[in-house]
Design a protein that fits this description.
The complex is a heterodimer. Helices cover 51% and strands 13% of the residues of chain A. Chain A is an alpha+beta fold. Chain A folds into three domains: 128 residues, no CATH class; 69 residues; 144 residues, Heat Shock Protein 90, CATH 3.30.565.10. In chain A, helix 1 runs antiparallel to helix 3. Chain B folds into two domains: 115 residues, Response regulator (Rossmann fold, 3-Layer(aba) Sandwich), CATH 3.40.50; 95 residues, Winged helix-like DNA-binding domain superfamily/Winged helix DNA-binding domain (Arc Repressor Mutant, subunit A, Orthogonal Bundle). Chain B has a five-stranded parallel beta sheet, with helices on both faces. Chain B has a four-stranded antiparallel beta sheet with strand order 6-7-8-9, with no helix packed on it. In chain B, strands 10-12-11 form a three-stranded antiparallel beta sheet. The chains are: A alpha+beta, B alpha/beta. The interface between A and B is large, with 38 and 44 residues. Strand 10 of chain A pairs antiparallel with strand 11 of chain B, so a sheet runs across the interface.
Chain lengths: 406, 224
Amino acid sequence: MRTRLIIAFIVVALLSALASAWVANLILPFYPSLGNLIRPDWISHLLNSHVPGAGRHLILNSHVPGGGRHLIALDAPAGGGPPARTTALTFVLAAAGLLLATITGLAFAASRRVLGPVRRLAEAARLMSGGDLSVRVEPAGDELAQLVTSFNAMASALEDKVSELQRMEARARQFAGDVSHELRTPLTAMTAVADILPGHPGLTGDAAAAARLVSEEIFHLNRLVEDLIEISRFDAGTAQLVTDDADVATAVLSCLRARGWTDVRTDVPAGLTVRLDRRRFDVIVANLVGNALRHGGPPVTVTARAEPHGPGSGQLVVEVCDHGPGLPPAAMAQVFDRFYKADTARARSEGSGLGLAIAAENARLHGGHIGAGNHPDGGAVFTVTLPRASHRSASGMVAQTVPAGR
Amino acid sequence: MTTVLLVEDDPGARQGLELALRRLGYQVRPAETGEAALGGIGQDAVDVVVLDVMLPGLDGFEVCRRLRRGSDVPVIMLTARGDDFDIVAGLEAGADDYVVKPAEPRVLDARIRAVLRRQARVGSPAETHGELVIDRGSLTVTLSGREISLTPTELRLLLVLSGSPRQVFSRQQLLDLVWEHDYLGDSRLVDACVQRLRAKIETDSSEPRYIQTVRGFGYRFGPV
């Protein structure tokens, strides 16, 4: 915008310079004395000093309406100086140049004055889109004043709205966390006695079936509350990483063994040691494998490998594949959402509906991520990528043998 | 019969846990508040304390700290949150182990049994390591002739480490040997207990002579 304005000014300046030269040509033949207004010595010095032997002279040529050419010579030595036409043209150009410089300067100053507030507004809008809602523009006493006032009002309204939304979200999250915590106390009592009911000799028929159902649902409720509390820890930012050097093969096999998943295939190289939070890594593997077993088709495979990534560092890549129908394209983006169900008609499954969301949060806490996709040969693939050396180390140990106090 | 002092303010959780523990063969002495627990502990023998963190009045951490001033009875914290802060604070207060609510009876049972096993005596002569004398028969530890009072967990940790001097034990191994935790034990239990043990037997905890850290691997006893 500014450049265009300046170009426009330059064009106008050029045209006016040419016009003035033309007017001068018209007038000078009738009022030759006007030529004295332009100091000949000054002009000749300026324009013709490079010509050896140049005297004081000024020659203008003009086309008068009657035709013919008039030469006006001012103190010009005979046989010296440049051709008259060139000298006149040089003068016109010099005049135009001076005018151009003056007008450009004026245009520059004017554009600064006009465009200053616009630039400040643009800068404020840029800051605002970057997330800084506290930005305001200083009121300007010109045509843009109203725009600035409207902008500031909009910024205030937006800031109020966003902070209100943030407060509401924080309250909702706090509430979800509090509810989960509150559920734990009655669940403690129920869990403690849940084992007594099933198989009790005093309960038969419907009573026995009801007792079994209650007992199973207490187990499910426990799991749901556990997962809700875990999620609320991530939301509140209180989830911590407790890292230790761990052998990936041992961690994966222990995870599967502890849950009795004997039919899951593994392909993990021996001796692959990664610094990670063992409990959280266990949760990631268990939730992905559990999901594959529930929603995918057998066999489920867990593979792990160290992938070189940049000099001197690496990444741990763990893949959990199943051989089911794979993920529908629409599900890919939402599969890590809380309580997301790919098949809305499906009845409540064994899981809490938070397993994949928790796995993704745990990977993120390690500085990694989980991706969801489909294998070319069919079946869903969940790929966990974790940095091999976690940058956030809780126990802060280094792998060297020096007997020293912690 | 093993007597459990169960400190839990919520009546439902208290009754449920009492019922479950009784069915598992424990004698249960319930207490509603920390004050009641501290008052009752001296009256008759308590083998293990199961202590809720969230209590009205004195909270579980404070009860544990006060308990530790005059008693080495094993304490298992019952944390309602499972939040890292609670666990660390509980361990610093001197708890031997923790169980996250809602505690399954078999998990609580396993923890109680493991804590009690740490008091098991083995008949063998006293060993001398520098100024430290460890008597595995009488389960007494003396430092420069003065008897040191250790909790069963601290004692068990010292016995395991000093049983194989110079051998490096990883935190995971110690969790398995001392706490009998599964493969996902919390290594902070080990670190907290090592610090408490050092405070009792080392002259300078920052320059430990007996319980040494092997950075990146774990801990070892000596060389003295």
